[in-house]
Write a structure and sequence with these properties.
Largest sheet: 3 strands, mixed
Number of helices: 11
Distance between the termini: 94 Å
Strand order of the largest sheet: 2-1-3
Strand content: under 5%
Helix content: over 70%
Radius of gyration: 27 Å
């Protein structure tokens, strides 16, 4: 190592460049996080309680909502703490753990969306045999494969990054331990390491995106051949919300992880990372809720059940006429009780 000092902790520079805005950023990100949690939990509860939503499409949507919730929990609470604290240090094991879970869950989201696109294709191509082709067992296998592949790739990336030597510099120009800002601090980062990380990132993003596009090419070819305009509209509406989420997710993710590294700027990375980690998870449940009538009906039922449950928890008030009669009896009887005493 020569004259280098082995780094044991990192400093998350993050929003320290905006000291006057940290209070406002805390409020905005806090309420965004609460909204993300509430929206995703509402979707999961609606899917769980509504028997009409016990279908493969909503099974994958449940998994995607759960995975996105976990992704935000890995990043945003730590971000909120750093916005309020002076010390923004994170130990090397904590940084590695955060990178492992963030990249693993993000990869899991990509493969779940690929499974959802295959589900859309099967529903349009073979509607009569849909429930025999996409069984619950197959859904569970696809979900487990998404999770296992995502975390295996993430483990490879994390091991590659943290086998590097971090010398002297320990300030990460980011609000969490993302790949590019961390490897920028390594003193033995070589083109071989860069190629390894790029190939693994491309395998997740480009590989899953190709699977999605293949499904939608077949879907589009089926829709074009339909003679009925009503049938084409119904087929397109089946997958429109999913397609919207795909373009939101992959657009920002590819910009963050696959763009040329010589074009990096600190403010650009920060803005795109905030969009990718906060805005995209916020928009996804909104898109699924606004563009899906079945989900809207299920969410209304959940809200109705909550509204019925809340009055039951509140103490029941005695009707006015019974209360007046009770008070009159107390006034009439109380003197007798006093004399008896």
């Amino acid at each position: 190592m020569g004259n280098h000092t082995r780094v044991r902790t990192f400093f998350l520079w993050g929003f320290s460049s905006f000291p006057d805005l940290q209070g406002l950023l805390f409020v905005v990100i806090f309420f965004s996080h609460v909204t993300i949690l509430a929206a995703n939990v509402s979707i999961m509860v609606a899917i769980k309680l509504s028997h009409s939503l016990h279908t493969p499409m909503y099974f994958f949507l449940f998994g995607l909502s759960f995975s996105e919730t976990c992704t935000t929990v890995v990043i945003i609470p730590r971000m909120l703490v750093d916005l309020l604290s002076e010390s923004k240090t994170i130990s090397l094991p904590e940084c590695a753990t955060q990178m492992l879970f963030f990249f693993g869950l993000s990869s899991n989201n990509c493969f779940i969306m690929a499974a959802m696109s295959y589900d859309c294709y099967t529903a349009i191509h073979n509607p009569l045999h849909y429930h025999t082709l996409i069984t619950r067992k197959i859904c569970i296998q696809l979900m487990m494969a998404s999770c296992i592949i995502g975390f295996l790739v993430s483990l490879c990336v994390t091991v590659t990054v943290f086998n590097l030597s971090f010398c002297n510099a320990n300030t990460i120009d980011h609000f969490f331990c993302d790949i590019a800002p961390v490897v920028h601090l390594a003193c033995d980062y070589t083109p071989r390491h860069e190629m390894t990380i790029f190939v693994l990132s491309a395998f997740v993003l480009v590989g899953s995106f190709i699977l999605i596009m293949i499904s939608y090419i077949f879907i589009l070819s089926i829709i074009v051949r339909m003679s009925s305009a009503k049938g084409r509209y119904k087929a397109f509406s089946t997958c429109s919300s999913h397609l919207t989420v795909v373009f939101l997710h992959y657009g920002f993710a590819c910009f963050v992880y696959l763009k040329p590294k010589n074009s990096d700027t600190f403010y650009e990375n920060m803005m795109m990372a905030v969009i990718y980690t906060v805005l995209t998870p916020l928009l996804n449940p909104i898109v699924y809720s606004l563009r899906n009538k079945e989900m809207q009906i299920a969410l209304r039922k959940v809200l109705d059940n909550v509204n019925r449950f809340i009055p039951q928890m509140a103490p029941k008030k005695e009707p006015q006429h019974l209360r007046e009669e009770h008070e009159a009896k107390v006034i009439h009887v109380s003197p007798c009780n006093v004399y008896d005493a």
